[in-house]
Write a structure and sequence with these properties.
10 strands, 40% helix, four-stranded antiparallel beta sheet, 245 residues, single chain, alpha/beta
Length: 245
């Protein structure tokens, strides 16, 4: 579960996140959409503890991210849009290192890694240096390593960047399977079709505010459109822009 309570973040005179309150229950696949500079990534960084809120609170699996960071982090995985990997390691060394950080046994690391390596077609690259991998292969490794310890909450920013259609499908299917098994997924994307396909609920952030939350069908009804979710997104963000102008 993710709980945000009146979350705010200011950078000097700029209010990047403006009073977001939201509950994402266990097992929900939640997608957040918004224009560039809307506050999506800043919100994510406060959820995972990389940025301290100006005010408000973020809780992961019942633990306050700021006052109980170790408890929250143990139950969380985060994949940014451009993940950092240790280039001199091999994928297997990186997976093992990640498992050790989460205090997994060697047996558990080997079992989980074997399943994920096969699922993400990483066998060919397993013992080669990460620095020689393509961006798409690095992205698959980052997602695999983040899923290794079976987190309760999975936060990912632009997961399909650099992935070919085949591996994008694998990521979609695996995240949906994990959500159905009880993992909370919080996904930020500019690909509205991904949100329409996968999300149980969608949140739209604009100018730092959460302007709409609901199922794709509910957002369409609110926007008064029957077509693709993109039409609802454009209508709702245009409506908010007009009201704030």
């Amino acid at each position: 579960m993710i709980e945000l309570q009146d979350l705010r973040k200011n950078f000097g005179d700029v209010q990047a996140v403006d009073g977001i309150s939201l509950t994402v229950p266990q097992g929900e696949f939640f997608c957040v959409l918004g224009p560039n500079a809307a506050g999506k990534t800043t919100t994510i960084k406060m959820i995972v503890g990389l940025i301290k809120p100006t005010s408000g609170a973020a809780r992961v699996a019942g633990y306050d991210v700021q006052s109980q960071p170790l408890e929250a982090r143990a139950r969380l995985s985060y994949v940014p849009d451009f993940p950092f990997l240790y280039d001199k390691l091999t994928p297997w060394e990186f997976l093992r290192f990640t498992g050790q950080l989460f205090q997994m046994s060697e047996e558990a690391i080997a079992k989980s890694a074997a399943e994920l390596v096969e699922r993400f077609s990483l066998e060919e690259w397993l013992h080669k240096s990460i620095e020689g991998l393509s961006h798409g292969t690095r992205q698959r490794l980052a997602i695999a390593s983040a899923l290794l310890h079976t987190p309760e909450v999975f936060v990912i920013d632009e997961p399909m960047v650099g992935l070919d259609p085949h591996h994008a499908r694998i990521v979609k299917d695996l995240l949906k399977e994990r959500a159905q098994a009880g993992m909370t997924v919080f996904l930020s994307t500019h690909q509205i079709g991904v949100a329409d396909e996968l999300a149980d609920r969608v949140g739209i952030i604009q100018r730092g505010k959460l302007i709409a939350v609901g199922t794709p069908a509910e957002l369409r009804r609110r926007a008064g459109v029957d077509g693709a979710l993109e039409e609802a997104f454009l209508a709702l963000t245009e409506e908010e822009f007009t009201q704030s102008a």
